[in-house]
Amino acid sequence: MFGICTATGVFERCDGWALLPGNGSLVGELSIDSSSVNTGNRLRDHDLQKKLFLDSRNYPVITLTSGDVTIAGRSIAGAGHLTVRDRSVEVPVCGTACVDADRLILKGSATLDVRRFGWPTAFGYIRRSLIVNAAVSLVRHG
Q: Is the pTM for the entire model greater than 0.90?
């Protein structure tokens, strides 16, 4: 049964910030509580939090930091750095942005090679490609 079913899940606790300097660029950081993974299966969640994958005890925060990211109209594109455990990997950042008076809503997806984070792919336990979909809503302060 290994590798047959596709699991989906969410991280339930995160925080972040973003700046829009006005030149079309976006600067920001998203911090995710690695122990807040929820796939709807407690055993799977516990396995993901263990040392083999997220190692939540030793690395409680997953971080996505913007690199060269631009907003043109409703599109965002560029690259960021995703840090999981002790590995930081450049990842593509692409998707949509919606800015209104009170909030910035960012949506996008990326396909990650889990081997770059040192995760095992043997025996079909986890696929090499992991699709990450994100929707982030940031509230304006100040």
A: no
